[in-house]
Amino acid sequence: MLFVGWGQLISFIAQTDRFMRKYLLPIFLGCAVPALVSAQQQDSVIFRQIADEVLTHSTAYDNLRVLTKEVGGRLAGSPGMVKAEHWGVAALKAAGADTVYLQACMVPHWVRGAREEARIISKRRDYTPPLNVLALGNSVGSGEGGVTAPVLEISSYEELEARKDEVKGKIVFYNYPFNPKFIKTFHSYGDAVKFRGSGASRASKYGALAVIVRSMSHGANNEPHTGAMQYDTAYPRIPAVAIGLQDADRLSQRIKDEPSAQVFLRTNCRMLADTIGHNVIGELKGSKYPDQYLTVGGHLDSWDVAEGAHDDGTGCVQSIEVLRTFKALGIKPERTLRVVLFANEENGTRGGKKYAQVAKERGEKHIFALESDAGGFTPRGFMMTMSDEQRAKVNAWRPLFLPYGIYDFDEPGGGVDVGQLNAAIGAPMAELSPDSQRYFDIHHAPNDVFENVNKRELELGAFAMAALLYMVDKSF
Amino acid sequence: MLFVGWGQLISFIAQTDRFMRKYLLPIFLGCAVPALVSAQQQDSVIFRQIADEVLTHSTAYDNLRVLTKEVGGRLAGSPGMVKAEHWGVAALKAAGADTVYLQACMVPHWVRGAREEARIISKRRDYTPPLNVLALGNSVGSGEGGVTAPVLEISSYEELEARKDEVKGKIVFYNYPFNPKFIKTFHSYGDAVKFRGSGASRASKYGALAVIVRSMSHGANNEPHTGAMQYDTAYPRIPAVAIGLQDADRLSQRIKDEPSAQVFLRTNCRMLADTIGHNVIGELKGSKYPDQYLTVGGHLDSWDVAEGAHDDGTGCVQSIEVLRTFKALGIKPERTLRVVLFANEENGTRGGKKYAQVAKERGEKHIFALESDAGGFTPRGFMMTMSDEQRAKVNAWRPLFLPYGIYDFDEPGGGVDVGQLNAAIGAPMAELSPDSQRYFDIHHAPNDVFENVNKRELELGAFAMAALLYMVDKSF
């Protein structure tokens, strides 16, 4: 863009920011808003106030810096998670919560141990660099001696079944590529993630010694992307790793070129006995119905090898920012706003389950639950699960959201953690739906770091969440 | 995101990709598309084909890697620009253009010389690091001895006028912050860029010796953002630099703390005589009206200190990708498609002016001109300048674009380069409108590099451009 364009740009402003001028200039100028403006005009003023507050005074980005850079990786049960809980309590108090407390729950305690190793064992004398792999969460270690075996490349479960007689004594290599044709990348994830989740037991059933899974990513680098897996207890538990995309291609090519090549794989992880974790909860007491609840949250745990910036540091700091913004603007929600930093989304959902269980036991009335766990990217809308009547209300708010680039309200959904509350007591729920294009470049990988979060994108997501909660509080 | 979410995700796919299933599954399954599907259903099939082609076989990202990493910075008149022209010719031929040629034009020839220097001159004995500055494009050098003078901080032209008696013998420091309240960051740019464009002459009028301009950015780093300026020939030409945001704050604080502090500033740039540059043009001959034109382009030049990745390497490779995609899918536009890599957007618009001038002289019939020069970020829509009738046609295509996240067609506009064609002969025009949140983190700064471009975001922009041109070709 050349500077001579600014005249043109200013004319754009004149034409497109009528909205702001119409509704806000009277306030800026100290005039009273006409008493008879419509309800939606009044809401648009509040939206603008929320946006201005978040875009100028947000503490979300600084909070995220501390969480990612000073706390860092924080898998459930790890010392990092204990530090993160302390961080959460302090951040919620600083944001102005009336009450901050911990809700204990048992969490899985999986430890990676020493970094995993993998390499191609070839009779050729050429050098092949190590394969960049990460053990999958919840998987077992290989033992000190590791596994050395030929590799069977498989691209679908149908192929696995068809070739089941070839599996015994092999390392099964699921090399199913992330489908680039889906526009929303979560659909590519949904399409591919089964190999990570159940691939080990499916292969173990036929005698495989270990599995290597192509990372669920279309990133341009070679980072391996870990994530949770689960064993079917009917079959032996075997080691399971994710492999970076470039090394997946290299391994695939090598076993074609040299069918006798083997892979050596050693993982050092193990599952210990469950331990204690905590949901970190901060409340802003409802002005009219204090015993009715609006929940907003993200998960505080992250994979051990990353800073957990987008997954899900951003969801945590955005949720805290909602509370801070309400306090700063003097917005007193009628219902009690609960910010929940969930204890264990990544490899057990125990935090979400505990929260739902307690809500059910106490007979709490939950009006709405909102989650942010799809990355701190520019918001485009919300995925929602609620009654048709509630959905119709949200749809009526589209004109309020559109000036902020938020237009996509049609996809059903809700987050994994608040999903537990929905399942337990039918609470209406939604999840922030940010632009998804960059998420699987960094998801569950060592490059999910603070530097890959953009301050404004993060803040616009927090704005969207605060604005939605503001509307829901007075409408549901 | 936890893997147990994949069942849920798959259900999302089932519910939201009905569009794709409805229109594309018949093709995937080898069945004939029913003969009586509506025109818009047929178009939706083509849209899906374009998206699939771009998302699976695009050469845009690789082209961009070569342009940014092997050619690099390429200001008009520089050796880099000559290399870039060779690159452009080769890339257009590789994409399948029928004809590739150069269109010569005279361009400004501004050279930076040795990197500029600035520092605070203090009577205190404390150490202050150098100020991170970049000379503004088209500005004059300070001379060997540089400028050493007290600093007058100014935050508006109104303040400049009010304090004009204080300006003489000073360095004027325009410290107007980038307004974070605009949702589309180009509006913040339009609001702030006047200080870069005309600030030097406005201050020179009252005897200033040089100007320092706060960078037009809300980035979190200290990169200075250069860009073009212009002198008013009525006043002496004085040096002008942009300063990084952190150093702008540091300078502001220091001159408050120590009013006698001065700044030393040396710039080594100069404007040489105009030289020859070229628009690089590739054509795909129209199947029905070869003497009618659709233009699609970006600008090939970039600032010298950056790789010109988002500004505007992405626009160039996206425009080339449109042509490649049409060829790959056997789409034969009725009108001649012209991909134009403009020679000199940054500091003169001479490429766009030349293209428009030749079109006018030859009486060419230009149906539409599309530009991409707002970054290679996820597309959200198009800014358009055209007749009401044409705008109504585009609005009718909204349902086709919405599944690709493209919904914003309401803002008027068009690019700086195709704007010349619009001005000269009234050609309808549009500019790709990508998400703007990250653009001013890197705009005109050394961090505008390949690594900050996401492959899928780039490709989705190319898809949007190809889809719009496909529709316009058969409808305008």
TrEMBL record, chains A, B:
The record's subcellular locations are: Endoplasmic reticulum; Golgi apparatus; Lysosome; Secreted
Query: What are the record keywords, sorted?
Result: Carboxypeptidase, Endoplasmic reticulum, Glycoprotein, Golgi apparatus, Hydrolase, Lysosome, Metal-binding, Metalloprotease, Protease, Secreted, Signal, Zinc, Zymogen
- Cite a single GO BP annotation: proteolysis
Instruction: Give an example GO cellular component term for this record.
Output: extracellular region
One of the entry's Gene Ontology molecular-function terms is: metal ion binding
InterPro entries for the chain: CPQ, Peptidase_M28
Give all residue intervals belonging to the Peptidase M28 domain. 279-463
Q: What is its main location?
A: endoplasmic reticulum
The answer on whether this UniProt entry bears the keyword Secreted reads yes
Subunit and partners: Homodimer. The monomeric form is inactive while the homodimer is active.
Protein's recorded name: Carboxypeptidase Q
